[in-house]
């Protein structure tokens, strides 16, 4: 117990020293990519960066990585995408500092999707939240560790959600087949038609 306490104090101390070395200065990071290719399947890989997906009008996909970070960390975040046919993979790479700590303020990846329907949709984060709104999706797989998952105004054929300590909120959601599993998080549903549902906790 004493060792854990010492490690916690040391971690906090290192974080404070790192912040002081930056002089408390922050930088507003804003990286954006746009394209108009047809996308049917979407996969998103992130770490502690929140992921938000919304439906928009028009024909242009817009990917925006934004937030406030310490000045020295402004080049530590990379947004990249790989497209193969109708399949799109998005990655947010978060480089650690020399002391091994990921330093950030608040970061979000906003995906504006100009489509009504997505075939396969997969999002995986560690401590980042996942928010999805306004889409019809055939197969969804949303995985978060300590982040929360929020889904609103959506229709699914198959919906699979897995979290560790993160909560799950579903509002005005329809799904023919639903599989939701969380370790210590909670599940909240409002106007949630889960069809054939499997719910688990551990």
TrEMBL record:
Residues 39-187 form the DUF4097 domain. Pfam families: DUF4097 (PF13349). It comes from the Bacteria. This is DUF4097 family beta strand repeat protein.
